[in-house]
Amino acid sequence: MHLSSPLSGAATVTAVPSPSPVRQVADVVAERIEQLIVDGVLKAGQLLPSERRLTEKLGVSRSALREGLQLLRARGIITTAQGKGSVVSGMTRLDASPLMHLFSSQPRTLYDLFEVRALLEGESARLAATRGTDADFIMIRRRYQDMLDAQLQDADTSVHARLDHAFHLAVCEASHNAVLVHTQQSLNELMLTSVFACVNNLYHRQPQKRMIDTQHADLFNAVTGRLPEQARRAAIDHVESVRDSLNDIEQDEQRLVRSTLRLEGWA
Length: 267
Prior knowledge:
The protein is mainly alpha-helical.
């Protein structure tokens, strides 16, 4: 609305043109795709479905869809490459930041990370057991079975680590807490470093490996059995147990180094 200058004596009102129907629908398209991203249905780095599939799923015209996608590009929510389609942007990009480089390059921060994991994964498990749907539990069961299958196939450590991480992420996604899910996803590479440390150092030690298998089973059963407090405790116990085992190994290695130096006359 426009008001004339008070000096003109009387105020005249000029109506602002209404937004076009296409623009209104485009806003709805953008909002619905943003909701899919927030809910974790569409993930960072994931290619959006084709225009034809999106128009069918969203029930909009192709022109409205393109307007909506343009809004998302302007907001930095998606990026589009010629001939490759649109991809969900890595909005937080914490993994690429200098801070994340410093964290990953300093071994002592590994134990800080385990403290954060215990907080995040404990609450994720509790909420997953409370809010998880049958569809969520199907995904958790698939990720859990993937871990078991990899053990039977004697997969390499990188495969074990990624499957282990995927299982914990599936539990987190079942929490239906968008901030919790995106926080964990934003720390994805950093989280993987702790999982790699676990796999590389503990999987070939049978007592520790049996303990980890039991802890994963306890977490799986508590979440899918809808036992919130047991699920929270299982997640925390698992993370803290892995942390303690790695710390014990590190202390043993340091003692070995010191005793070897003394034996060789360096101390």
